[in-house]
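Write out this protein's structure.
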Amino acid sequence: MDSKKFTDLNTSPRILLGPGPSMVPSRVLRAMATPLIGHLDPEFITIMKEVQELLRYVFQTGNDVTFPVSGTGSAAMEASMANFIEPGDAVLIAVNGYFGERLCDMAGRYGAEVHRIDRPWGEVFTPAEIEEALAQRRYKLLGVVHAETSTGALQPEIGAIAEAAHKHGALLVLDTVTSLGGVPVQIDAWGVDVAYSGTQKALSCPPGLSPLTVGPRAQEVLHQRKTKVANWYLDLTLVEKYWGDERTYHHTAPISMNYALREALRIIAEEGLENRFARHRAHAEMLWAGLEALGLPPLVESAYRLPTLTTPQLPAGLDEVAIRQKLLAEYNIEIAGGFGPLKGKVWRIGLMGFSSRRENVVLLLSALRELLG
């Protein structure tokens, strides 16, 4: 083999304004270069504890079972289905975008009897309509997407939805992949039983870990299972012992990714959650106003718009793929297209974590103004 054909890595300096990954601070990248130690080394165990403490702060929870699953956001999503579903369990999924659909798919693969309540992509649910669906029969769990990455919709009134779920005997599983670290997520105050996220969006860490938190109701359901969890790698009855006081070997945690997550979470703690939420909101409003001025109004009603992910509507006849290609080639800016029923109708623009910066909004709007003529 001619090894000379493999050159040094020299990727373009992209400005990542798509649905993820987001841009990563240099502090986080430097943390990843820290020399490896063993995953059961006492020093790494201390780091694990610090990661858990920082995650509890970001999730706003006191849950003991709070840790990053070794895998991207979909791994914690799957863990949330695999651990709390046994064959024949009835589950209800609220579907208003692609990731609600994915929850249905995962739940079905673990033998659940999947029922769904639907809203058009870009809309949100009311607690009343969810409670009406919950009242139809006994469900083991309710799955809800807090921030739908495919549409830019932010589901409100999570506390009321959790109350309805508990009234009817169901656990609430909440997808916070595109909300955690960018908009308020209050696991304990809202009464959420299971929540999961990803590192590569508003936490501004490379993809590879997926934060998960499990409350006492869900823990009790987990430990009362009649069958083994069907996914060995994501079996929380095993993984919780690795991240708990026992530190029982389960798998080799990705050391460098945990270094990175610790630093990313430390940056969030330094900024403070309220300041972080205000920054995301201010830059999103600046983007929304600029898009309106360009004739690209956001799809989602303003009251339910997600500050971390915006979906501007595109005029008929626009070659949106060509515009995105020019943004990348001429300005080094990445945004994404829509998919599913929104394919060709919207773009997906992310202002998440380190990417949520005033200069990025100004540059993107200026570039779009040039490209759209």
